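Pasting as-is:
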Amino acid sequence: MGALPHADTRVAVVGGGVVGVAVTYALAGRAAAVTLLEAEDDLALAASGTNSGILHTGFDSPPGELETTLILRSAALRDAVLEQLGVPVLRCGAILTPRGDEDARVVTALAASARANGVEVTLRQDGALEVPGEAVTDPVAYTFGLARAAAGGGAEIRTGARVEAIGRERDRLVLDIADGERLTCELVVNCAGLHADEIARMAGDDSFAIYPRKGEFFVFDPPGGRPLERILLPVPSQRTKGVLVFPTVDGKVVAGPTAHDQEDKGDWSVREEAWDEVMAHARAMLPALEGAEPIASYAGLRPAGRGANYVIGRSAACSGLINVVAIRSTGLSASLGIGEHVAGLLATQGVAARRGRVLPGAPPPAGSGPWWRRAALHRAGAA
């Protein structure tokens, strides 16, 4: 998004996914001097552009946890931001239908958690749980909308700017960038997703490790030409939210994801076995998918932490490094809350001390096709 006109900034945000962009947006809205560095040639090419696009309410998040707090805060901030950004949103709501007594007990507990979180739900007499606040967006348009607004607020957004080393000169951190440039700053906010542990190790912090959890999706034309009216949610397990079926803002139907743990951070392929893993569950929720042929498929790699989730705070190993890592599948939903939370941490150091404001949006670029096709084509080309 343009060359950096100066070699210094107060805050460098590493990572141009939705979390890094939301942090940049929050800092720009507080008049902080901030530069975002994204290694890829475009924003949102990793987990942020290969997810479901669902904006969760936090109804099923454990009360009191940081992840839950940030999802709920995002939900409170979201409408005003979306209106300014002009990002498409499908406010369709969701339904979760139990299948069996154990599912029914889980759904009843979810209803109680939702009420504890202040999220509106309805537990029907047939045991199904309705969540009217769940919505779907275009996650790529959302990320780019935040980036354009942040740039309009004074932030520098750089793509193709891979950080290769982090050092220190006196009271400033020095980032060596792949093109030979050096960027100095007071603070580095590590939002590098799958590679956040590598960025942290450059600064001497080996306190966490990130591994990829692959989520594979299949895209369909709506069966029978009838749009899917609501998100169909499964009963979640402790490990995953499970396979769901949901509409997209452009009228398609998507089934997924899987939850396949792997070691290779560069393997974005859709496995052959993913079809059976997804469709056995998807057809149970939407029988009309029986016999349907997908028009596309894609995989996302969620940055899961080993024994850690939502690690947000100052590094104990490197003064000036703030880690925002192990942000798993709810990162899109929690992004605005994460940005505000990080801005609050930096305010204690005299950065971003002003009250935040909603930044005006900017017209989106000419259409480049649906986000799910961008995800499928980009990763197919990388394979």
